[in-house]
Design a protein that fits this description.
This protein is an all-alpha fold. It has three domains: 37 residues, no CATH class; 50 residues, Helicase, Ruva Protein, domain 3 (Orthogonal Bundle); 97 residues, Orthogonal Bundle (Arc Repressor Mutant, subunit A). Helix 4 packs across helix 5, helix 8 runs antiparallel to helix 12 and helix 9 packs across helix 11. It is elongated and about 70 Å long.
């Protein structure tokens, strides 16, 4: 795809093609006379776009051996779900583990900046309130969880920045990563609650040591 565009331009302003589309649209009249320049950043962009277009099942085949090396057992369905989320942040297949490891292993450490700045008695009460909503949720699909979290914040007049960074750190240990509702949808209700409960204990210990 990228190699074709180094020396040729399509009629439409389009960059992503399947092989069949390239075969159909390519013609010698639109070949450039100027020398081609290879752009590594653009090459990475192309790879990222192709990663996003691959199915979770296809990418699971790449992640499965990495999990086996680490002695991690997970169902094909679960690995596929994790890949569907991880592919949106991955440029190459070897990055799938970097963006999905927290789905398979509970966090061993937690972002101290978020804990120190946001874990207050008020935050604890708010998280407990949110936890009760999560426990009561009947539909744990990402879209339903997104609505649940949005409604919770609105109804309680909370700002997303007060709650969601804390919740993300509770779930995966880091303040950066996929959307909280996507993380919970993959983890499932039981694992999400287990991680929240565990994090509360760890957060309290971290604050006591400050």
């Amino acid at each position: 795809n990228m190699v074709a565009l180094l020396g040729w331009s399509p009629i439409e302003a389009k960059e992503i093609f399947t092989m069949q589309q390239l075969i159909k649209e390519f013609n010698l009249q639109r070949i450039h006379k100027a020398g081609a320049k290879f752009d590594f950043e653009k090459a990475s962009w192309f790879n990222h776009e192709y990663m996003k277009h691959k199915s979770g099942e296809e990418l699971a085949a790449y992640l499965q051996p990495l999990l086996a090396e680490r002695g991690i057992n997970a169902s094909p369905e679960y690995i596929t779900q994790a890949c569907e989320v991880a592919k949106l942040r991955s440029t190459f297949v070897h990055e799938l583990w970097d963006h999905s490891h927290f789905f398979f292993v509970q966090p061993e450490s937690f972002d101290s900046s978020v804990v120190k700045n946001k874990w207050t008695e008020s935050a604890r009460k708010n998280i407990e309130l949110m936890k009760s909503e999560i426990v009561a949720a009947e539909d744990f699909a990402a879209s339903s969880l997104e609505t649940l979290l949005h409604n919770f914040l609105q109804e309680n007049n909370f700002k997303a920045g007060e709650i969601l960074p804390v919740l993300r750190v509770m779930l995966i240990g880091s303040k950066t990563g996929p959307a909280v509702f996507e993380i919970m949808a993959v983890l499932g209700k039981d694992e999400s609650i287990i991680r929240m409960n565990r994090a509360e204990v760890v957060f309290d210990k971290m604050m006591a040591a400050v």
